[in-house]
Amino acid sequence: MNGILSRETLVKWAPLMVLLILVLFFTVLEPRFLSVRNLARISVSAAPALMVALGVTFIIIMGSIDLSMEGTVSVSAVIFAFAFLYLGGTLFGLAWLALPLAVLVGAVIGLINGIVHVKLRIPSFMASLAMGFVGTGLALLLTGGDRIRVEDEAFRGLLTERWLGFPIMVYVAIAFVLVGWFIQSRTTLGRNFYAVGGGEELAHASGLNVSKVRILGFMLAGMFYAVGALLAVARIGIAETATGNNFMFMSITSVVVGGTALWGGIGGVWNTLVGVLIVNVIGNGMVVIGLPGYVQDAVLGLLVIVAVVLSTDRKSISFVK
Amino acid sequence: MNLERIKPHLPWITLVSLVLIVGIGDSNFLRPHNLISMVADIMPLFIMALGMTLVIFIGGIDLSAQSVANMTTVVATVALPTFGIGAALLCVVAGLAIGAISGFITTKLFVPSFVSTLAMGGVAYSAAQYLSGERALYMDATLRDGAFGWMVGSSFGIPHEIFLGAVLLLGTLFLQSRTTFGRALKAVGAGELAAVASGLSVTRIKVLAFALSGMLAAIAGLLFSVKLSGGSPTLANGFLLPAIVAVLVGGTPLTGGVGGVVNTLIGTLIVAVIRASMLYFEIDATMQQMIFGIILIIAIASTIDRSKLRVVK
Amino acid sequence: MYELCKVDKKFPGVHALKEVDFFIGRGEIVGLVGENGAGKSTLMKVIYGAYQPDGGTVTIDGKAVRFQNPRQAMEHGIGMVFQEQSLITNLTVMENIFLGFEQQFVKFGVVQWKAMAVAASKQLAKVKLDIDPSTITAQLSFAQRQLVELAKVLTLEERVDGDLVILLDEPTSVLAREEVELLFKLVRDLTSRASFIFVSHRMDEVLELSDRVYVMKDGAVVDVVSQADARIETIQHKMVGRNVDKEYYREQKQKPYRPDQALVKFDRVSVNGKYEDISFDLHRGEVLCLVGTEGSGREAILRTVFGLETPTSGTVSIKGSEIRKFSAQSGVERGVGYVPRERKVEGIVAGMNVYENMTLSQMKNYSSAGVLRIGEEKDLARKWVDRLAIKTPSVFKDCGGLSGGNQQKVVLAKWRSGGSDIILLDHPTRGLDIGAKEDVYDMVREMCDDGVGIILVADTLEEAIGLSHTILVIKDGKAQQVFHGKPGDKPSLYDLVHYMT
Amino acid sequence: MSFIKQYIEQEKLNRRNFLFASAAGLGGLAAGGMFGPGMARAAIADPTIAWSYRNRTNPYWNEIVSGGEAFVEGLGMSKDALVHLINEGSSEKSLADVKSLLARTNGELALAIDTNDAPNCRPIVEAVAAAGGYVSTIWNKTDDLHPWDFGDNYVSHMTWSDEKPAEETARILLNAMGGKGGVVHLGGIASNNPAIERLQGLKNALKDYPDVELLAAEPADWDTQKANQVMSGFLTRFGDEITGVHCANDTIAYGVIEALRAEGIEDMPIVSYDGNPQAVQLIAERKILATVFTNPHWGGGISASLAYHAATGAFKPSDEPNEHREFYGPTIMVTPEDAVEFKAKYLDNVPTYDWTDYWGPSNGQIQYK
């Protein structure tokens, strides 16, 4: 086992290989799976989830976890929709200001989340879980349970306008993956996430302000959640308390499937991209090949396990929790 | 008063304070009948949380618990006419099996429990859908009373759910504090490597913890199914997060080795009281969830014993 | 240039530093010795800014300073090379070197990796380490990592105008002898730019390197000796308040082992990638010492005996029967006890109390049908607390809160009380002070008298020679030479080093 | 402390009697209930009025609640007087909340509720009856449970027979498809009764349209986003074969419309269910061909009214015939032709209902198959 087929290489590329095998598998069963149209559909359904998963990737690299995404997405989506309509309801007017506002909202919630976690010294699992409840509750309080429609043709153009067969929102998502990659590899903050994940006490002793890195990490994650919220609204045209539903377990599963370790320090943006695609390919593929609804949960579960098993370097870890 | 000495008592102090706050707001809350009834109703959730405690105690998590409970409501209802009380055995075995498989996947295949249990939950949910024919089912009243009437009756003014919960609590407490398994569980939670170096079979202990969690989730589902006299693949929805919250609020953090089943009893009761307080203080419906979250932060912040956490991750 | 004057530090219930005076001149190497708990680590923490003193003054070149955190200390040229490996292994070497100080390479928010690599190479050159700065740290050897840490601290040179003070906390604990010599040479070369405070339990090394030695006891400096006047025995006497005689290793208590009673037989055993073709016999009453450099395969052999590694070829027999199934459990059942090097992580379970730790490996003996007999556990623990003079307020005390020496005693008690008669000691005295070390040596002799066989990986060569009946020298996973030693007729240091390297 | 002991004794007796009553079965139940605390109370002068429902994120429940609030305001109280119990899709929370409220109000409660899952209905009704409160249920109830088995305390159960209306919307859809092609169905949570009935309605209609194929039916869990993803999958799987979409409710239809819009498909025939304002708007724009209005506003109001008036003794449920205890709610078909008129009548100006006309708009006694 050496040369290009060394264990490290295999493990590194395993998630991508799993993705390709899955694509091949579904294509053999249903050739239409591999059409540009269907790939566009998968991308559209993956785009909001990808943004959320990117956000939580940074947190997981730090060895923490964030369960607040459902609340953050809902609040960002709802405030965006309110502001968008209040400011005129079309992107050509002042309403574009609602876009940065939504991201700001995400940042603020992330910041509060980070402060509660770091300053009150509550483990992130608990702090963010509770913040998630607060977020969802806040969205409910703001809307009173109503749904807000965002009909603006220009904004919905994210979904309806296509370049090379793919809606614009797919390109937006790719752009944010590049932003994430830039943060991860070319900024101090991004590298510090890895330092904290690799050894928090050591990083602290090296003079790194770990608390600050953590809080900024949660804030950054909040901003990515807000971008996910914007894409989710663009996809459905509705902002509501339920906009954030189902993002929590799916995004974390995607991150793990992509090969980012829950104990921190390993993985990154590209892993998450592959992980999100794996989960969405399975979801779409099961419908496309006509698997009965009641077995889909089981098949998704089993395939996720297989994917994680294949992309874990079992020799390098002594145990997992 | 020395703060260090109060710390271990914070969970129940928090609980008593909450009860008193609600009681001062509305003395109806303190009526024994109401308190007993509230405790009886929280028992299915408590039993699930008991199982969750064992897994969180070793630093893992069991996200399959709700789906396992869903599955057992269906299994119990479907199997009741054929097997009678044997349906209970079927449920318990099914829960044990799902939990054991999760444990095996976690320990042997190195899939984090967050993902392995979520995935096995999907399997359980599919099984529930398949077995139920994707319908809500109900139990025949006579059959139910014949086989499971003892679960939901009442003696000495105390509903039997409480006895069942108490028996399981004492059982797990015994397991946790008096048996080699409980000791090993603590060792694995607090120092897995040291447990290995002491020759403990860590794999077996962890698989057993997950299996017990599955079993208790199944019992929770069974009790809920009997209480509601029916089953459906979505019947136990809404159990999972409160069960996790109950464990965490009780003071068993995810870092492992700290806390225990008694903490979970207190945590579950705290959740029940917070929930009831929403009604007693007439909190507006659209505000309840937000306030629940805020109280949760306060409750966790005041119950966790930070001196046992080396790094707050 | 750097001076502490009557520095005082109190913690609840402990007077950790008692009016300590401390001075270090430009380019000087100062040793700092004392038993565990003497106040060394508190003093170091005050120096590098982790603690703020309650009284007294800290001056640099006559100017009073007060550091709120390590970062401020760094800005004044004070850096720390930590005892435990403190590099973050998933980062590259250059990221580790500049961790927390990346800002200098950031242009418009973007990290300039090339500039950082160039700067890192310059730092590595200072410590004469020729590696690619973008190597992932996990791929380096322990010795290389130690040098990277030194390089990291030396970045202070560029950042700080004044002179540097560098603390070295047990820098040699994971190094082999020749690596230690390399490090010392480097430190001496670097005195042109920095002063060093050298903290170590290895007295010989302290004396070898330091110009002056501060001796601490009970939170106070009890003596300052210059290299010329220093003698190990005197210093040790000051540290412990009693003589450390030539019988330090209890050689007089060493008795012949019983060659007819083999406990462990290794016959041409190999583990792929770890060691190959190793054969030896361990007998009742024998101390067998495995000597070699870090990574030579010593630990892997211990782990094989315990059952944590499965041989790829060869046969292992324990007490006459050949082992086919390798697992820690079966090892324990066969009477093997393992005292691991990482005491806090692998030895004891922090968070569990004394009796819980003691019976962890032998719960079977203290339970019926899985139910523990806790009363008996406590009796056992009390017995062994007395027998080994374990300093603990009660058997309910969390082991994580005991001192290193007492933790080690708990680990030994765990195996001894369970009747283990093959004890594997991996660096059993690492990080222990002299008193605690002597206790361990006493226990080794007692165990031999009881017919126990011991395989030892020693902390120092002297310890290996002093304690062992038999020494097996290993290099790169292969056996080099076997030495037999009786009291008064032991191999010399030189003999061993000759075969090790 | 003797009063506590006495109290416990009292409760013990009550509970035993109640359980005895449940065990006695059909005939004995009403009589057994006579010993219960509820029966000891002839009428409750000023009961707390509460609505317990799934969540605030679905427009359907908001409509239900608006009806409940309108009823409360009709009594001359502020609409804040209505207590909301939200179960978030958790039967466990639903039951616990009801019990807490019963304790707080000392049983002086008029409760309208959807119990979230059918099996949850029995313990809720039993709890309310045991405490002497009054309850009206909608939608979820197991077939073996009937209001008349509980004397007066279980006032009524209302549900909607969805099979027929769903069949009618299906016919509109199939006609719009020209009687040929392929149809897909996106359903609710698979085990929910309405989801089952609405799919069955489509299947019934298809018998008369041999040239239309039911390509697939999958649950979309009443959820817009899930529906969006399922529809995307269908588009790949069947492509142009899909010439019509049958949705189990309006929120699913929104997701379907957006999935189609993403593909530039604007003229796909779609029918849905529930008659939410937004859906009616879409019908007026001919983006949806038909929906079925179940008048949740009235349903929400009348359920609260029934419970309230039974509690105050305005009418005695046990004197009413069975068709007044278990009945179907109203269904109104909305199509593009009458959408504007419908909107004006029911949505833009919510009609003022006579909340004492309990059974006027109802649709006959519930039939069990």
Task: Please describe what this structure looks like.
Chain B: It holds the Pfam family BPD_transp_2. Chain B: The complex is composed of two ATP-binding proteins (LsrA), two transmembrane proteins (LsrC and LsrD) and a solute-binding protein (LsrB). Chain B: It is a multi-pass membrane protein. The complex is a heterotetramer of chains A (321), B (313), C (501) and D (369). Chain B has helices at residues 3-6, 10-25, 32-57, 65-83, 86-108, 113-132, 141-152, 160-178, 180-190, 192-197, 202-228, 240-250, 261-280, 288-303, and strands spanning 137-138, 154-155, 158-159, 230-231. Chain B has 313 residues and is mainly α. The longest helix of chain B has 27 residues, at 202-228. Chain C has two domains: 2-247, Rossmann fold (3-Layer(aba) Sandwich), CATH 3.40.50; 248-500, Rossmann fold, CATH 3.40.50. In chain C, the strands form six sheets. Chain C has a six-stranded mixed β-sheet, with helices on both faces. Chain C is globular. In chain C, 51% of the residues are buried. Chain D has two domains: 36-160 and 296-330, Response regulator (Rossmann fold, 3-Layer(aba) Sandwich), CATH 3.40.50; 163-293, Response regulator (Rossmann fold, 3-Layer(aba) Sandwich), CATH 3.40.50.2300. Helices cover 46% and strands 16% of the residues of chain D. The interface between A and D is large, with 41 and 34 residues.
Write out key terms for the chains shown:
heterotetramer, C: 501 residues, Rossmann fold, 2 domains, six-stranded mixed β-sheet, 24 strands, D: 369 residues, alpha/beta, four-stranded parallel β-sheet, 12 strands, elongated
Task: Compile the SSE list and pairings.
The complex is a heterotetramer of chains A (321), B (313), C (501) and D (369).
Chain A: H1 7-29, H2 36-61, H3 69-86, H4 98-119, H5 124-143, E1 148-149, H6 153-160, E2 162-163, E3 166-167, H7 168-186, H8 188-198, H9 200-205, H10 210-236, E4 238-239, H11 247-257, H12 269-288, H13 293-310
Antiparallel strand pairs in A: 1-4, 2-3
Helix pairs in contact in A: 1-12, 2-7, 2-8, 2-10, 2-11, 2-12, 3-4, 3-5, 3-10, 4-5, 4-10, 6-7, 7-8, 8-10, 11-12, 12-13
Chain B: H1 3-6, H2 10-25, H3 32-57, H4 65-83, H5 86-108, H6 113-132, E1 137-138, H7 141-152, E2 154-155, E3 158-159, H8 160-178, H9 180-190, H10 192-197, H11 202-228, E4 230-231, H12 240-250, H13 261-280, H14 288-303
Antiparallel strand pairs in B: 1-4, 2-3
Chain C: E1 2-11, E2 14-24, E3 29-34, H1 40-47, E4 55-60, E5 63-65, H2 70-75, E6 78-81, H3 93-97, E7 106-107, E8 110-111, H4 113-126, H5 142-154, H6 156-159, E9 164-169, H7 177-190, E10 194-199, H8 203-209, E11 212-217, E12 220-226, H9 232-240, E13 258-271, E14 275-284, E15 287-291, H10 298-306, E16 313-318, E17 321-322, H11 328-333, E18 336-339, H12 343-347, H13 354-358, E19 367-368, E20 371-372, H14 374-387, H15 404-417, E21 422-426, H16 434-449, E22 453-457, H17 461-467, E23 470-475, E24 478-484, H18 493-500
Helix pairs in contact in C: 4-5, 15-16
